[in-house]
Write a structure and sequence with these properties.
The complex is a heterodimer. By secondary structure, chain A is mostly helical. Chain A starts with a helix and ends with a helix. Chain A is globular. The longest helix of chain A has 34 residues, at 87-120. Chain A has a single domain, classed as Orthogonal Bundle (MetI-like fold). Helices cover 70% and strands 0% of the residues of chain A. The relative contact order of chain A is 0.12. In chain A, helix 3 packs across helix 15 (283-308), helix 6 (125-137) packs across helix 9 and helix 12 packs antiparallel against helix 15. By secondary structure, chain B is mostly helical. Chain B has a domain at 81-165 and 193-231 and 258-270: MetI-like (MetI-like fold). Chain B has 13 helices and no strands. Classes of the chains: A mainly alpha, B mainly alpha. The interface between A and B is large, with 109 and 106 residues.
C-alpha cells in the first residue's frame, strides 16, 4: 500500500492497491485508524469487563493487594447457586419486577399521549417541551433531594393529605417505597421517551390520518388505529430502554430509602452488587448477580421484540 | 365526520392544550419547590412554605461551610470536560469512519456498538471496579473517574447518523479533487453537521455531570469527589447536623441542577427530536 493511498484513505483508486491487501483491510484502511480509539475503548471498557465478570462469577474471587499472587480457584456454579438461594437477592429481583410493572406501562402510555399532544400544540410550544424534558437533564441526586422532602413523614405531601396520609409514611412503608421510586423514575425519564415518540410521530404518514378522518374516526379512534400502530418500532425501543433503566436502578433506592428499606422492599440488584461486591468484599457473588441481570435484560428484550413486532 | 367539525376540533385542541399545560406545571413543581426551599430560612412543609417569603442565602453558606462546594464543582467540571473532549474528538473520528469509510471490521464494530446500548454500564461495575481500582490503582484520580466514560457510545452513534445523512456525491467530488479524509471531515463534513453536533454535546454533558454511582465508587477522598457524590454524602451523613438541613440540601441540589438546566434551556432549540430520532432508529 502506497503512502498516498493511505493518506487519502485509499478512496482514489487510480493507482490500485494490491487486491489481497484491499481484501484484508478494506478499501479505505484509514477508517481503521480513525475508528481505532473507539474500538479500543469498547474492548477495554465493555468487552473485557464483560468477560471478566463471567470469569469472576465462576471463581472464588476476593480482593488482594495489587500484584500479589493469590490462588483463585474455579468453583463452577457455586456462586450462582448461592446467589439464587439468597432470599435478599430474590427479593431484589422481585422489587425490580414490581418497578417495571409500574414504570413501563406508565412510561409508554404517558410519553406517547404527551408526545401526540405536544406534536399538535402550537401555543407556547417551547415552554411545554422544556417543562417535560427538564427532569431528564437534571441529576437524579438533585431531584432525589426534593422528593425526600416531599414524601418524608412530615413532608409536604403528607401535610396536604392530612389524615389521609399513609401510615407508615411513603418511603418507610414496604408497600409504597417501590411504587414511589417507580413514579419518581417515570417522571425523571419521561422527557427522553417523549423525544423518541416525537421523532417516531414524524414518520407516520399524514394520509393515514386523513383517510381515518374521512372514515369518520374521531381523535381517540385515529390515535388508537393510526398513531399506536404507526409508532410500534419506537414502542419496542421504549420498552427495552425502560427495562434497562430498571435493571440499572441504584441511586434512587440508595438515597430515597437509605439503601433499600424498609425490610429490603426497595433493594435493587445493583445495590446488592455494591453491598456484597465492594462493601463486603465478595466480588464473585456480585459478578454472578450482574451476569444473571444481563441475561434477564436480554431475555426480556427478546420477548418484547417478539411480542411487539408481531403483526 | 360529525365529531370533527371545526368548532369541535378547536374545543378538542384547547382541551389537550389545557391538559398539557397542567401536566407541565406538575412536572415543574419539584423544581419550584427546590428553588424556593433553597432560599427559605426555615423549613415549612405546609402549603404556605411554597410562598417565597423570608428569603435568605444562608443555606448556600451553610452547605458551603460543610462541604467544599467550589472544589466539588471543579471536580465535576474536570470529569465532564474530559469526557466531552474525548467523546467529541474520538467520537467524530469513529462516527465518520463508520458512516463514510469502507474498512475491514466496520460491520463488527457497528454491531458491538449496538450491543453496548443493551448491556447497561451498572452491571459491569464489579469488573470495571476490579480493573480500575484494584488492578491499576486509579482510585481517587481523575483518570479513574473518566476512563469508563471516555467515549460515549450514544454520541458516536449520533455522529455516525449525522455523517450518514450527507450526500455521497459531496465526498466523491472532494476525493476526486485530491482531498484527504481528514481534510474532508474537517472542512466539508463537520461544518455541515455543526448544528446537530450540539445535540450530541448536550447529551454527552448530562452523562458525567449527573453520574453518581461510578464516581461514588472510585473516589473516597472528599476533595476528589464531583458534586453529585458530595451532595449525596451530605444528604445521607451530614445534613442531620445542619440547623436547616432542608434548605442546605436543596441549596446543594440547585447548584448541581443549575448548569445542566441552563445549558439545556439555552440550547434547547438544538435538542430536537429529529436528531435524536435519527440516532436511535439505526
Amino acid at each position: 500500500m502506497s503512502t498516498e493511498a493511505a493518506r487519502t484513505g485509499g478512496a482514489v483508486t487510480h493507482s490500485p492497491a494490491p487486491r489481497k491487501l484491499t481484501a484484508l483491510v478494506g478499501r479505505q484502511p484509514l477508517g481503521i485508524v480513525m475508528a481505532a480509539p473507539y474500538a479500543v475503548f469498547l474492548a477495554a471498557v465493555f468487552a473485557y469487563p464483560l468477560g471478566l465478570a463471567v470469569w469472576i462469577s465462576f471463581h472464588r474471587y476476593f480482593f488482594a493487594a495489587p500484584g500479589a499472587q493469590v490462588d483463585r480457584p474455579f468453583v463452577g456454579f457455586s456462586n450462582y447457586t448461592r446467589v439464587l438461594g439468597d432470599p435478599a437477592v430474590r427479593q431484589s429481583f422481585l422489587n425490580v419486577l414490581e418497578f417495571l410493572v409500574i414504570n413501563v406501562p406508565l412510561t409508554v402510555v404517558l410519553s406517547l399521549v404527551l408526545a401526540t399532544a405536544l406534536n399538535s400544540v402550537t401555543h407556547i410550544r417551547t415552554f411545554l417541551r422544556v417543562a417535560y424534558y427538564v427532569p431528564y437533564v437534571t441529576a437524579s441526586v438533585a431531584l432525589v433531594a426534593v422528593w425526600l422532602f416531599l414524601f418524608s413523614n412530615n413532608g409536604m405531601v403528607n401535610n396536604v393529605l392530612g389524615p389521609l396520609a399513609p401510615n407508615p409514611s411513603w418511603l418507610v412503608n414496604s408497600g409504597l417505597a417501590m411504587p414511589v421510586i417507580a413514579i419518581f423514575v417515570t417522571w425523571k425519564q419521561l422527557g427522553f421517551f417523549i423525544l423518541l415518540y416525537l421523532a417516531a410521530l414524524q414518520n407516520v404518514p399524514k394520509e393515514l390520518y386523513e383517510s381515518a378522518s374521512v372514515d369518520g374516526a374521531g381523535p381517540v379512534r385515529s390515535f388508537m388505529s393510526v398513531t399506536v400502530p404507526g409508532v410500534r418500532p419506537a414502542t419496542t425501543l421504549v420498552v427495552i430502554l425502560a427495562t434497562i433503566t430498571g435493571a440499572n436502578l441504584f441511586t434512587e433506592p440508595y438515597l430515597l430509602t437509605n439503601g433499600g428499606g424498609p425490610n429490603g422492599a426497595s433493594t435493587s440488584p445493583v445495590f446488592l452488587m455494591y453491598q456484597k461486591g465492594i462493601e463486603q468484599g465478595a466480588p464473585d457473588i456480585a459478578a454472578a448477580i450482574g451476569v444473571i441481570l444481563v441475561i434477564a435484560v436480554l431475555v426480556i428484550s427478546l420477548i418484547n421484540r417478539r411480542v411487539l413486532e408481531r403483526d | 365526520m360529525l365529531d370533527s367539525t371545526p368548532a369541535k376540533r378547536r374545543k378538542g385542541h384547547w382541551l389537550s392544550f389545557s391538559a398539557l399545560l397542567l401536566g407541565a406545571l406538575v412536572f415543574l413543581f419539584p423544581f419550584y419547590y427546590m428553588l424556593v426551599g433553597s432560599f427559605k430560612a426555615k423549613s415549612d412543609p405546609s402549603l404556605k412554605g411554597l410562598v417565597p417569603t423570608g428569603l435568605t442565602v444562608h443555606n448556600y453558606a451553610q452547605i458551603d461551610s460543610r462541604v467544599n462546594l467550589l472544589r466539588s464543582l471543579v471536580n465535576s467540571g474536570i470529569f465532564t470536560g474530559a469526557v466531552l473532549l474525548s467523546t467529541v474528538v474520538f467520537g467524530i473520528l469513529g462516527g465518520y469512519a463508520l458512516a463514510r469509510l469502507h474498512f475491514r471490521g466496520r460491520g463488527t464494530l457497528f454491531a458491538i456498538m449496538l450491543l453496548v446500548q443493551i448491556v447497561p454500564f451498572q452491571l459491569l461495575i464489579i469488573p470495571i471496579y476490579v480493573m480500575i481500582v484494584r488492578t491499576y490503582g486509579l482510585a481517587d484520580s481523575y483518570l479513574g473517574m473518566i476512563l469508563p466514560f471516555a467515549i460515549n457510545s450514544t454520541a458516536v452513534f449520533l455522529f455516525r447518523q449525522f455523517f450518514l445523512q450527507l450526500p455521497e456525491e459531496l465526498f466523491s467530488a472532494a476525493r476526486l479533487d485530491g482531498a484527504g479524509e481528514l481534510r474532508i471531515l474537517w472542512s466539508i463534513a463537520l461544518p455541515l453537521v455543526r448544528p446537530a453536533l450540539l445535540t450530541a454535546v448536550l447529551l454527552t454533558f448530562i452523562g458525567p455531570w449527573n453520574e453518581f454511582l461510578w464516581p461514588f465508587l472510585v473516589t473516597k477522598q472528599t476533595d476528589m469527589q464531583p458534586l453529585a457524590v458530595t451532595l449525596a454524602n451530605y444528604i445521607s451523613n451530614v445534613a442531620g447536623r445542619a440547623d436547616n438541613p432542608f434548605g442546605a440540601i436543596l441549596a446543594g441540589a440547585v447548584v448541581l441542577a443549575a448548569p445542566a438546566i441552563a445549558l439545556f434551556v439555552a440550547f434547547q432549540r438544538h435538542f430536537i427530536s429529529s436528531d435524536l430520532g435519527s440516532g436511535v432508529k439505526g
